[in-house]
Specification:
The protein is of the alpha/beta class. It has helices spanning about 15-25, 40-50, 60-70, 95-125, 145-165, 185-190, 195-200, 215-225; strands at about 5-10, 30-35, 50-55, 80, 130-135, 175-180, 235-240.
């Protein structure tokens, strides 16, 4: 019987975050759901029967304090950098630079802050551990109007490779999962079933449909587990073949 690991999922109150958390719980692991929305984190943790952590991933001092607490309580074995924002769309000629900076601060700087803190935490503990970043195929395939988000996810892929090569000597593996569009509650509200918008996007995908939340979590669990112990530095598309088009 394997010893349960402790998994930290940022952005854990969102649809993909909760799906990832549930998959790790079903695998027998312990999960900490971190989210900048404290109430949403508490609700999600209560629904899943696990632990909530209010946390702003862009706040270096708060992140450092969180990991100091983890060290006193047994440590974190796996970090899932899921937190990110996709709230601002705009063309090259129209996007407000301040809106662009907001996306970069959360999606890039926040991912870096968490990666750095986890790496220091694991090195202090003697090495080992795994990071799985949630990227996007948008970092490799542009969609008009989504350039700020997609630029940030291209950077997440770059951080993944950077951290993977530098942390390999410490036995820390770093990979990413890059979904296409995922039918989270928020996306379903914006593109309901039967809408022309959803049909248009599904037509871009060779397998013919957008991903369910449950399609993403197994890839994350795999990259965090022993079955992928010789894999580091990759960004695994889970996109129904969209990158082929």
């Amino acid at each position: 019987m394997t010893t349960p690991r402790t998994i930290l999922v940022t952005g854990g109150a969102g649809g993909i975050g909760q799906g990832i958390a549930q998959a790790f719980l079903e695998a027998g692991d312990r999960v900490v759901i971190a989210d900048s929305n404290a109430e949403a984190a508490r609700r999600a943790a209560a629904a899943l029967g696990t632990t909530a952590l209010p946390l702003d991933i862009t706040d270096e001092q708060a992140v450092t304090a969180a990991f100091e607490t983890f060290e006193a309580s047994g440590g974190i074995d796996v970090l899932v950098n899921n937190a990110g924002i996709l709230s601002v769309h705009g063309t090259v000629t129209e996007l407000d630079p301040n809106d662009f900076r907001t996306i970069l601060d959360v999606n890039i700087v926040g991912t870096f802050v968490m990666t750095q803190a986890f790496a220091r935490h694991r090195i202090t503990a003697g090495g080992g551990g795994t990071i799985v970043n949630i990227s996007s195929i948008g970092g490799r395939q542009p969609t008009p109007g989504m350039g700020a988000y997609e630029s940030s996810k291209a950077a997440v892929d770059s951080i993944t490779r950077w951290a993977a090569i530098e942390l390999a000597d410490h036995g820390i593996r770093v990979n990413a999962v890059a979904p296409g569009p995922v039918l989270t509650p928020m996306l379903q509200q914006g593109m309901p079933e039967g809408s022309t918008e959803r049909a248009a996007w599904a037509n871009r995908i060779p397998l013919g449909s957008l991903a369910e939340v449950g399609d993403i979590a197994p890839a994350v669990v795999f990259l965090a587990g022993q079955g992928s112990k010789h894999i580091t530095g990759i960004s695994l598309p889970v996109d129904g073949g969209q990158l082929l088009t």
